[in-house]
Design goal:
Largest sheet of chain A: 8 strands, parallel, barrel
Oligomer: heterodimer
CATH architecture of the largest domain in chain A: Alpha-Beta Barrel
Helix content of chain A: 40-55%
Distance between the termini of chain A: 114 Å
Largest sheet of chain B: none
CATH topology of the largest domain in chain A: TIM Barrel
Order of helices and strands of chain B: HH
Number of helices of chain B: 2
Strand content of chain B: under 5%
Strand order of the largest sheet of chain A: 6-7-8-9-10-11-12-18
Structural class of chain B: mainly alpha
Number of domains of chain A: 4
Number of strands of chain B: 0
Low-confidence stretches of chain B: none
Largest interface: A-B, 38 and 31 residues
Number of domains of chain B: 1
Distance between the termini of chain B: 32 Å
Shape of chain A: elongated
Chain lengths: ~625, ~80
């Protein structure tokens, strides 16, 4: 190396070092950029995966908590039915689940038809269990297994327009008052009021059964009527005529005889039997109003229970105009010797009457007594009876009610114009207690005397709804369901599959016959049977047909063997549930019923037959020619 | 005329042959219902699958003919060459 080359070399070395450094820097930069890019992409990928997973979870959640809903639009849904189209339901298992891509390809829509009820607000679909729920919304509906009866006294005028029909299974028009001498009614103006009333239409609109209360409240008149067969027959004739006047509107009668003389015990039973027989013949029902205490054993419950649909215990008036001291109108419990709702209902049970034949009526009114001199040792006086709404409006603003835990009733102590008064009544709390008690006793339902006395107080009806109302979501089944695509035509094929199958068999038979007849010509026979390859094909076809035929004859459900498959599924379920004995016995039964060796028998039979045919043809070929 | 007769024979053969094909097709699918009883939808679906199998069988018969034709054409060509 020359000296003068040294600076040049140094300069090159420097350049190289710089270049190397630059390269290293770029490389490291590139490397770190790559790493950063990688980490960014990695993070992005992770985020994207996470987003997709979250979306999938949301979709799953959405499916699980499906908010699929069909709201009823009264302006659009004017027909008797409501239609709802949606994507076809895919079950969680089974053939539709297994081949859902085929199913979805064939059917893009499924249309359900539901009956349109008056209380239907929307239909909701539970996609997991494929169940439909009828949402009756905030308005209530009674449970189908209970009865809530209310009385519409004629003096309430057109108050029936505002009744809560949704929470009444029966409503009774009060009343047809029997003329004991003739059997006709002696309050024509009331009957005329019923005739002109739109009460039957209102009740029918909500599916509330309408009854007519028939009353006879006087001891002497009862004796006259019950001793007069002609009057009874006339009454039965007239009441049936009245019920028939509004075709299909009335469900029957509610019979209210009070103060029956013990001497007329058998007469009354006889009358009820006769009346009920006629009502049943005309598809009407009979409810018998009975007092809370069967004084003098005047009502023969053991006999009567066979002739009435329900006994309505009038669970009120325990204390009232006939009482010498104030007390609960409808006490749940009372002192040992005093009657109460409990003793009353227990008496019925002791007579062998089932709770499901008993309705317990409760008061929607209060009774006021003058107790000014009671503390001085004098008697109290019955003052007046007031409907519930008047009790509330008169006293609740000024006084606090007291609760009597023994009777489960409330009362006010009132100071009015220097007099001391007491008002016993039932409010939403005491009624709620009694409703619950009636349910615990397994009674059929409750009654309310009388409608209109509460002026639709929501607190009272809330109690009825809470105790006797149905759930707001009620399972509903579609009247029909129709899939789009070939569903209709295939359903028709299934419907007529025997005819279609037989037709196809006849067709195939004639094709085979044509083939056989063509064998009449020896040239055809020669061409068809001389080649061994042809013979193999015929033999295979023949064996297949024999196998097919034997299997067909062997099994009960020929085409798809779904019955066998269903039994296998059931056996698997038993196995999974640990019920091994059942599973083994079912498997054995399956093997016995559907033996696999029908295939072997088919092949053996087919092969022997083919061998014989071929041997015969070979032997008699010349003869056939 | 001969072509028409041949096609007619093949058509009927395809029609009949498709039936066992459909049967085996639906058998091999191993159709199982969801519950203890067959629903209407399942009943219809298994018949639809049977029809699908039948259509496949029918088409495959003609497909088989096409294959036969193609193979024979190729083989004959090779022999000729």
């Amino acid at each position: 190396m020359k000296l003068n080359e040294f600076p040049q070399l140094m300069s090159r070395a420097k350049t190289c070092r710089i270049l190397c450094l630059l390269a290293m820097f770029i490389l490291s930069g590139l490397t770190s950029y790559g790493q950063v890019r990688k980490s960014i992409y990695g993070a992005k990928r992770k985020i994207r995966t996470e987003i997709n997973r979250t979306k999938r979870d949301f979709r799953g959640l959405d499916k699980a908590l499906s908010s699929n809903k069909r709201t009823v639009d009264s302006s659009l849904d004017t027909a008797d039915v409501i239609m709802w189209s949606m994507k076809p339901h895919i079950p969680n298992s089974g053939m539709i689940h297994d081949y859902q891509y085929v199913y979805n390809f064939l059917h893009t829509q499924q249309e359900y038809t539901f009956p349109l009820d008056y209380d239907l607000k929307s239909i909701e679909w539970d996609s997991i269990n494929n169940l439909f729920y009828k949402n009756i919304g905030g308005s209530y509906k009674l449970d189908d297994n209970v009865e809530v009866i209310g009385w519409h006294p004629h003096w309430m005028g057109d108050a029936y327009k505002y009744y809560n029909y949704k929470l009444l299974s029966m409503i009774s028009f009060y009343s047809y008052d029997i003329d004991p001498y003739t059997g006709s009614y002696w309050n024509p103006e009331v009957i005329e009021q019923l005739r002109n009333s739109s009460l039957p239409d209102s009740a029918a609109k909500y599916g509330t059964k309408l009854l007519i209360s028939v009353t006879s409240l006087d001891k002497e008149y009862n004796s006259i009527f019950l001793g007069n067969e002609l009057a009874q027959d006339q009454f039965i004739y007239e009441i049936l005529e009245l019920l028939r006047e509004r075709e299909g509107m009335f469900a029957g009668i509610d019979l209210n005889f009070e103060e029956i003389d013990p001497d007329n015990r058998d007469d009354f039973t006889h009358f009820v039997k006769k009346l009920n027989a006629q009502l049943i013949n005309n598809d009407y029902m009979l409810i018998l109003d009975v007092p809370y205490f069967n004084d003098g054993n005047v009502l023969d419950y053991n006999e009567l229970k066979n002739h009435v649909v329900y006994f309505n215990i009038m669970g009120y008036d325990f204390s009232g105009v006939h009482s010498t001291y104030p007390g609960s109108i409808s006490p749940l419990q009372a002192m040992d010797t005093q009657p109460s709702l409990e003793t009353s209902v227990n008496d019925f049970f002791n007579d062998g009457i089932d709770g499901q034949q008993i309705i317990l009526s409760l008061p929607l009114y209060g009774v006021t007594w003058d107790i000014t001199n009671l503390e001085k040792g004098n008697v109290s006086f019955y003052e007046k009876s007031l409907p519930y709404y008047q009790v509330i409006s008169n006293y609740e603003t000024e006084y606090n009610p007291y609760y009597d835990a023994f009777s489960s009733s409330f009362f006010f102590v009132i100071n009015e114009n220097g007099r001391k008064m007491m008002c016993w009544y039932e409010n939403e709390i005491s009624l709620e207690i009694k409703f619950r008690w009636a349910k615990e006793k397994n009674l059929k339902g409750i009654g309310l005397w009388a409608l209109g006395y509460s002026q639709g107080a929501p607190e009272i009806w809330q109690g009825v709804a809470d105790n006797f109302g149905a759930d707001s979501l009620v399972v509903i089944s579609p009247v029909s369901s129709e899939l789009s695509g070939p569903y209709g035509i295939v359903r028709d094929i299934i419907k007529y599959k025997k005819v279609i199958g037989l037709g196809f068999l006849v067709f195939a038979g004639f094709v085979v016959l044509g083939f056989v007849l063509s064998l009449k010509d020896w040239r055809v026979r020669e061409i068809l049977f001389q080649k061994q390859s042809f013979r193999v094909v015929y033999s295979l076809v023949f064996i297949t047909l024999v196998v097919f035929g034997i299997q067909w004859l062997w099994t009960e459900d020929h085409l798809f063997q779904t019955k066998r498959n269903m039994e296998i599924v059931q056996a698997e379920q038993f196995q999974q549930a640990g019920e091994l004995d059942k599973a083994v016995s079912l498997y054995e039964s399956i093997l016995k019923t559907y033996p696999a060796w029908n295939l072997i028998i088919g092949i053996v039979f087919g092969a022997i037959a083919v061998l014989l045919i071929n041997m015969a043809f070979t032997r008699y070929r010349k003869l056939l020619k | 005329m001969k072509v028409l007769a041949r096609e007619l024979i093949w058509f009927f053969i395809a029609l009949i042959l498709a039936t066992p094909v459909a049967y085996f097709f639906s058998q091999l699918l191993g159709l199982k219902p969801e519950g203890p009883q067959l629903t209407m939808e399942e009943d219809v679906f298994q018949m639809e699958l049977f029809i699908v199998g039948w259509i496949i069988g029918f088409i495959c018969t003609y497909f088989m003919r096409v294959i036969i034709w193609a193979v024979s054409k190729n083989l004959i060509k090779e022999e000729d060459s």
